[in-house]
Design goal:
The chain is α+β, with helices and mostly antiparallel strands. The protein starts with 16 loop residues before the first helix and ends with a helix. Helix content is about 40%, strand content about 10%. This is Ribulose-5-phosphate 4-epimerase/fuculose-1-phosphate aldolase.
């Protein structure tokens, strides 16, 4: 794991074991997103809500590459983006409207990942959004909200409209921009992001090929979507997937990760 020279990777004495475990897993998630090639240089953001009623959450220091994020240098912030602990870094202001809105309103969402890979941005630009005719797209049936592009998400007045677009869903397509996924844990959010990314990749390739698609019926789509949602929320499926991907990343990148 690449760390800044001034950023220790040991658990600070004031940090609880519960918070440190969350910090370690969130740092792993940042590294995995980089490992998978889903980063946008120093931009985009992944947040994890801290335990407790205050809706505080952890987010990356703005200006660092995802490979430079460590458990210790993650920022602890409040809903308005104010830093709750001293840090030489600031957070990306473009993330507060999106992350704070969802963390405040959705008690079932503890981790939010925002990306705009090439494939996801292409889908976000299309009027019809996601197709549900492939294995991964079918798993997203009924689980995706769409939000009209209003420019860079900097302003608090957009929060209620984003929440209305999201509703009770866990995937928000930011039209002409990218996506945000939110789930009850870091592992669940990462697995959902992987599903969304795979759906986008397959759809982009299928749309570039000649011939008609085989269209799935809504009954099959609903069956796939409901089963996947159940597996994520009611089993250790997502945790097994997340841990396996961390092992794969560390095996390929070598000691230190």
């Amino acid at each position: 794991m690449i760390a800044n020279a001034d950023t220790p990777v040991v658990q600070p004495p004031q940090c609880s074991d519960e918070e440190w475990a969350l910090r370690c897993q969130l740092a792993d998630c940042y590294h995995l997103v980089d490992f998978m090639g889903w980063t946008e240089t120093i931009f985009n953001h992944i947040s994890a809500r801290l335990p407790g009623p205050a809706h505080h959450y952890l987010v990356n220091p703005f200006g660092l590459n995802y490979t430079e994020v460590t458990p210790a240098n993650l920022l602890k912030v409040g809903l308005t983006g104010e830093k709750l602990e001293e840090s030489p870094y600031d957070a990306n202001p473009a993330g507060f409207a999106l992350h704070s809105a969802i963390h405040e309103a959705r008690e079932d969402v503890h981790c939010i990942i925002h990306t705009h890979t090439t494939e996801l941005s292409a889908i976000a630009q299309k009027k019809d959004g996601f197709s549900h005719n492939d294995f991964y797209g079918a798993q997203l049936f009924g689980r995706v909200g769409y939000h009209a592009f209003e420019g860079i998400t900097l302003f608090a007045d957009e929060k209620p409209r984003m929440l209305e677009s999201l509703g009770d869903k866990h995937v928000l397509v930011l039209r002409n921009h990218g996506i945000a996924v939110g789930e009850g844990s870091i592992a669940k959010a990462f697995f959902l992001l992987w599903t969304v990314q795979r759906a986008a990749e397959i759809q982009c390739l299928a749309d570039s090929m000649r011939g008609e698609d085989t269209v799935l019926g809504d009954e099959v789509r609903t069956k796939c979507s409901d089963l996947t949602a159940m597996l994520i929320r009611e089993s250790g499926f997502a945790t097994k997937f997340f841990n396996a991907m961390v092992r794969k990343m560390r095996a390929e990148r070598g000691p230190g990760w």
